[in-house]
């Protein structure tokens, strides 16, 4: 019997190892183009994405205007289109076993849906049942509760039948707003401030995919 009928995964740094190889280099290129006087290390970038979030990093911390936001998105998409990230070891086995036992897999991410589907296909992962990506209107992206509410509605699920797996606070905030259990994915990086918060606040904190697997099965 499944512990949770539906696993809802974040994408970057949860299923695929992408920030250090794709998203951060793309962000650095944008900074060089639009804010050449500002430098940022990867841990600082991840901390901004952790809280208050990537959108706030761009609009508030960096004060990008609409034209600059479009430039940033174009630079980012070019990088994403030309690089397929690898999945974390053990993720394929975890997802396949969950699907074999009749479970659902959904994705709520700040990546574009088409790239999420591509990454799953290229890495041999089961096709997600539902995907809520950056292409959704802002009010339908995490940390807003809409994605989880819609997953529960479409798949006829109760909050306790879902497990949200994410490495950052926006996913935790979304899950908390919906009373959905939350597992922190702590296997992509080691940043004490994030580790401390997630280990204290979240229902579960896993530093290895294998630990999540052992919990589920």
TrEMBL record:
<dbReference type="InterPro" id="IPR023198">
    <property type="entry name" value="PGP-like_dom2"/>
</dbReference>
<dbReference type="Pfam" id="PF13419">
    <property type="entry name" value="HAD_2"/>
</dbReference>
<dbReference type="GO" id="GO:0006281">
    <property type="term" value="P:DNA repair"/>
</dbReference>
<dbReference type="InterPro" id="IPR023214">
    <property type="entry name" value="HAD_sf"/>
</dbReference>
<dbReference type="InterPro" id="IPR041492">
    <property type="entry name" value="HAD_2"/>
</dbReference>
<dbReference type="GO" id="GO:0008967">
    <property type="term" value="F:phosphoglycolate phosphatase activity"/>
</dbReference>
<dbReference type="InterPro" id="IPR050155">
    <property type="entry name" value="HAD-like_hydrolase_sf"/>
</dbReference>
<protein>
    <submittedName>
        <fullName>Phosphoglycolate phosphatase</fullName>
    </submittedName>
</protein>
<dbReference type="InterPro" id="IPR036412">
    <property type="entry name" value="HAD-like_sf"/>
</dbReference>
């Amino acid at each position: 019997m499944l512990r949770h009928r539906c696993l809802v995964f974040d994408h970057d740094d949860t299923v695929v190892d992408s920030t250090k190889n794709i998203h951060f280099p793309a962000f650095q290129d944008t900074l060089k183009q639009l804010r050449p006087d500002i430098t940022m290390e990867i841990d600082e970038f991840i901390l901004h994405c952790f809280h208050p979030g990537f959108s706030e990093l761009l609009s508030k911390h960096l004060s990008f205007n609409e034209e600059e936001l479009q430039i940033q998105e174009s630079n980012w998409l070019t990088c994403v289109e030309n690089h397929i990230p690898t999945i974390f070891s053990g993720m394929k086995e975890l997802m396949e076993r969950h699907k074999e036992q009749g479970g659902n897999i959904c994705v709520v991410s700040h990546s574009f849906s088409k790239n999420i589907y591509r990454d799953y296909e290229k890495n041999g992962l089961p096709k997600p049942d539902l995907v809520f990506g950056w292409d959704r209107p802002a009010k339908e992206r995490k940390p807003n509760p809409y994605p989880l509410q819609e997953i529960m509605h479409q798949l006829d699920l109760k909050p306790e039948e879902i497990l949200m797996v994410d490495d950052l606070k926006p996913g935790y905030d979304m899950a908390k707003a919906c009373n959905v259990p939350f597992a922190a994915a702590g296997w992509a990086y080691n940043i004490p401030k994030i580790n401390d918060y997630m280990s204290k606040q979240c229902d579960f904190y896993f530093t290895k995919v294998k630990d999540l697997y052992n919990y589920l099965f």
